[in-house]
């Protein structure tokens, strides 16, 4: 806008000027266009400041999207920019056009992700958001040495009698437990016969 270009007379008269895309160059016309450019620059600067304050408000909020998932953390479906725009609106109170959100990857698991929000050519922010799953429980790493590890039993002996008694091992599978029980019953039956 405001650029002075020389074009063919027919192109200007028949196409550019009727569609409002150009005006004929006159001294008053050039002056008017320059004044209009100054007004547009001031409006653009105000818009940029306003959108920067919106961006700061959004960046200060923690955004969490809750979705249904399996116990392993895999989502039933995927997270879209429409869902993210809705959560930003709920968290920050600012309506966001979903087309201004750019997500590089398809989000199909529980975790922390990033998206780029382009509010203005000069105002872009990186949004970090978390995808939480309904029904998903994160596994905790094993505890430090000396602490109980889930799945292992800790046995504390009491007195000298406990130290003398051997601790019976639990069968590792149901089939082994049944085989041992059958052997015990057969040995008891033969002992009873004698």
How would you state the average pLDDT, rounded?
78
**Strand count:** 6
Element-by-element helix/strand order = HHEEHEEEEHH
Continuous helix count: 5
Named CATH architecture of one domain:
Roll
Work out the radius of gyration.
Answer: 37 Å
Give the proportion of residues in helices.
Answer: 40-55%
User: Distance between the terminal alpha carbons, to the nearest Å?
Assistant: 113 Å
- What class do helices, strands and sheet pairing give? alpha+beta
Q: Largest sheet at a glance?
A: 4 strands, mixed
CATH homologous superfamily annotation of one domain: Ribosomal protein L9, C-terminal domain
CATH top level assignment of one domain: Alpha Beta
Describe this structure in words.
The chain has 194 residues and is of the alpha+beta class. It has a domain at 9-139: Ribosomal Protein L9, domain 2, CATH 3.10.430. 41% of the residues lie in helices and 20% in strands. The strands form two sheets. It has a four-stranded mixed sheet. A two-stranded antiparallel sheet has the order 2-4. The chain is elongated and about 125 Å long. Residues 159-164 have low confidence and may be disordered.
Keywords:
four-stranded mixed β-sheet; 20% strand; elongated; alpha+beta; two-stranded antiparallel sheet; single chain; Ribosomal Protein L9, domain 2
Q: Which helices and strands, and how do they pair?
A:
Elements: H1 9-16, H2 27-60, E1 63-68, E2 74-79, H3 81-92, E3 101-102, E4 107-109, E5 111-120, E6 123-134, H4 159-164, H5 174-193
Parallel strand pairs: 1-6
Antiparallel strand pairs: 2-4, 3-5, 5-6
């Amino acid at each position: 806008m405001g650029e002075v270009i020389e074009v063919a007379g027919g192109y200007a008269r028949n196409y550019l000027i009727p569609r409002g895309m150009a005006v004929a160059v006159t001294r008053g016309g050039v002056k008017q266009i320059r004044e209009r450019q100054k007004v547009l620059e001031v409006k653009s600067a105000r818009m940029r400041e306003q959108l920067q304050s919106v961006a700061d408000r959004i960046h200060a909020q923690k955004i969490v999207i809750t979705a249904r998932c399996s116990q392993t953390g895999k989502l039933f479906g995927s997270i879209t920019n429409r869902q993210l725009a809705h959560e930003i609106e709920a968290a920050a109170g600012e309506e966001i056009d979903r087309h201004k959100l750019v997500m590089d990857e398809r989000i199909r698991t529980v975790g922390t992700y990033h998206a780029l929000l382009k509010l203005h050519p000069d105002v872009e922010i990186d949004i970090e958001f978390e995808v939480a799953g309904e029904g998903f429980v994160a596994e905790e790493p094993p505890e430090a040495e000396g602490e109980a590890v889930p799945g292992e039993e800790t046995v504390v002996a009491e007195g000298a009698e406990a130290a003398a008694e051997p601790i019976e091992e639990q069968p590792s599978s149901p089939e082994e437990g049944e085989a041992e029980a059958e052997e015990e019953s057969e040995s008891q039956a033969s002992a009873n016969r004698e």
